[in-house]
Amino acid sequence: MSGKKRKNAKRKSRLPVAVRSKKPLSSRMGVWLFEIFTFIVSALPLGLVLYNGWHFGLVLIALAYLVTALLTVHVTQQWEKVVVLRLGRFNRVKGPGIFFTIPFLESAALRVDQRIIVTPFSAEEALTADLVPTDIDAVLFWMVVNPQKAWCEVDNYPNAVSWSAQTALRDAIGRINLADISTRRSQLDSELRETLSAKTSDWGISILSVEIRNILIPENLQDAMSREAQAQQESNARVILAEIENQIAELYVEAAELYRQDEIALQIRMASMVNESVKEGGGNNLIVVPSSFSEGFNAGTMKDLKDLFAKQG
């Protein structure tokens, strides 16, 4: 398998099942049954003529009646509109339901589906502003709002919409850097919708939304970007840790200054530490303290320690 075929197979495998499968056909059974019924009814005079005996004049009249009936009566579905031409010029838009045309003078030129149409499109190897090739898949939601313009202004409007969407996507990708594609995805969708709306409004087509579905970049570049993001996260973590240590050091400096100014506060803190050690050891720990520590237990300090121990239970 050639490289191009492998790439196309890989792209196809990335598409969801709904996109890879064929477009579901709309049920036209009612229209077909009506046309069959019209044909049978219109062919009855011809059948009677042939049954009762062949006559050239009557056969011609019956054939003319059959063709006239088939060219006169038409039926459209609920979601369809039909552009009717009279002698090659636009005359009116009919549908849904039954409508009539003048045989040989008028014709139903185009049936327009006015439901929302979903068109997947892509930009393969589109270069970003920093010259990085990317493959981008997107989905376009649109509908025909003016059948007259869709018939008169552009030939094969579904293909025109698809190609316009692909061109607009390539232009939008070429104006931004690779790092901005993911962060500006919603903004990029809005820009594409506005660009396509301005281009297709004259075609009688309304662009409902554009949604970027997938962004692929070269594998080696993915690894580089992953390492860069990891390094950035580690750098941020180190900065946060340094800031926290700096705040703790400042608190220690403030506490040391407080203890330096108030010896009673220092003695209470030391007694509290002793009390916590005793409670953690269940009263079985041997605690060694400097001899100068006992000098702090004077009458005034003992009262403060008594209050402290009472609060701690």
From TrEMBL:
It comes from the Bacteria. The chain crosses the membrane at residues 30-50, 56-76. Residues 71-229 form the Band domain. GO terms for cellular component: plasma membrane; side of membrane. SUPFAM superfamilies: Band 7/SPFH domain (SSF117892). SMART domains: PHB. The keyword Nucleotide-binding does not apply. Keywords: Membrane, Transmembrane, Transmembrane helix. InterPro entries: Band-7_stomatin-like, Band_7, Band_7/SPFH_dom_sf, Stomatin_HflK_fam. Gene3D superfamilies: 6.10.250.2090, Band 7 domain. Belongs to the band 7/mec-2 family. This is Band 7 domain-containing protein.
